[in-house]
Write a structure and sequence with these properties.
376 residues; alpha/beta; Aspartate Aminotransferase, domain 2; Aspartate Aminotransferase, domain 1; three-stranded antiparallel beta sheet; 16 strands; 39% helix; 16% strand; globular
């Protein structure tokens, strides 16, 4: 095996039953309704509600739009506290609407937003907390909810990594005021592009349904400021087909995860994030922490070495939102307040996973990592 065999991309799309997808496409073409809350979108919403056990699922064109509409529907303003260790869209969704994202540190054990850090950043301008379920591992929801209740703040979650994951047996999607999913091509469940807001608050759900369709509440009646945030029927077709293959996707992810753990368990200086076996997990993210002083090579040296062999690893989410513009200029001293985030961002490396890999390929990747650490 080598660079000429193939390139493995972190997050290469999971594609399920192509024949099933084709049948959904035939349905939408026969219906001759391509968008505007068509029957496939409605079916996909209902199936997601049933799967998650949540009262309302509002499908959107993508996860970023879903996040922006959730923020607006909750009436957030001023400052909202988020982790810097997240995809830049989490911060942009706030900044785009004139809301200041305030970056909290992550917990060194969970790698999700640290409730102690969150509470230290609360000011009279704070209106909400936006937690991120990172790598398919949930935030400390109970502590964040307690803080939100005590300070009368809104609480929502970016759950882009966490579809199919549970917290104390309850599916992510049921917590806070609402939660936001992404069904982008790289996610464990994809609909080409797509997103959703889930909530058990009926009034909030109704508001979001208005907002995603320009604010229309009737044929010729607009009752709220809205945008075009609707999911198309073709995206819903892909989502429906892939939802029926989700258990298989997760099974393959878990299988590969176990192969990686076996192959790397004796490599000094490399640790693999683990998952709570009492919960349902999607195992979609194969995340390493590289301790240079023990492994003998930097994270970036290992990344380059793997790329030389055709393996595309990623530094999710280096260098942190606080080190990207415009936040680097707006908050130039934030890094001093985020020691755990700063350290982890120098160590994190995410390896390929998904249907693209089999056991032999995972074993080969592990061998490359082991051998490189032994090189002088």
């Amino acid at each position: 095996m080598g660079k000429n065999r193939k390139n493995w991309l972190v997050g290469k799309p999971n594609i399920g039953d192509k024949k099933l997808f084709s049948r959904y496409v035939d349905r939408l073409l026969d219906n001759a309704q391509l968008t505007n809350n068509g029957p496939l979108v409605q079916e996909f919403e209902q199936r997601l509600q049933d799967y998650l056990g949540v009262k309302n699922c509002i499908l959107m064109s993508n996860g970023t739009v879903a996040l922006e509409l959730a923020i607006r529907a909750l009436g957030l303003e001023g400052e909202v506290i988020i982790p810097s260790m997240t995809f830049i869209a989490t911060a942009h969704a706030l900044q785009w609407q004139g809301i200041h994202p305030i970056f909290a540190d992550i917990d060194r054990n969970t790698l999700t937003i640290d409730p102690i850090s969150v509470e230290s950043w609360i000011t009279p301008k704070t209106t909400g907390i936006l937690g991120v379920h990172l790598y398919g591992r949930s935030c400390d929801i109970d502590k964040l909810q307690d803080i939100a209740d005590r300070y009368q703040l809104k609480l929502l979650f970016d759950a882009a990594h966490a579809f199919g994951v549970t917290k104390e047996g309850i599916h992510i999607g049921n917590f806070g005021n609402c939660e936001v999913f992404s069904f982008h091509a790289t996610k464990v469940l994809n609909s080409f592009e797509g997103g959703a807001v889930t909530t058990n608050d009926d009034a909030l759900a109704n508001k979001l349904r208005l907002m995603r369709n320009f604010g229309f509440s009737g044929e010729d009646q607009v009752s709220y400021i809205g945008i075009n945030g609707k999911m198309t029927e073709i995206c819903a077709a892909m989502g429906l087909a892939n939802l029926q293959n989700l258990d298989h996707f997760i099974l393959v992810n878990e299988r590969n995860y176990k192969f990686y753990r076996t192959g790397l368990q004796e490599v000094q200086g490399i640790s693999i994030i683990d998952y709570d076996q009492r919960e349902k997990n999607n195992y979609h993210y194969m995340v390493l922490q590289i301790e240079e002083s023990i492994y003998g090579k930097t994270r970036d040296e290992l990344k380059s070495y793997l790329e030389d062999h055709g393996i595309m690893a990623r530094r999710y989410f280096y260098p942190g939102c606080h080190r990207m513009e415009p936040y680097r200029s707006l908050y130039p001293h934030t890094a001093e307040m985020l020691p755990v985030t700063e350290k982890f961002n120098q160590q994190v490396l995410v390896l390929p996973n998904g249907l693209q890999l089999d056991e032999a390929e995972v074993v080969w990747i592990c061998k490359l990592i082991r051998d490189f650490g032994l090189h002088e």
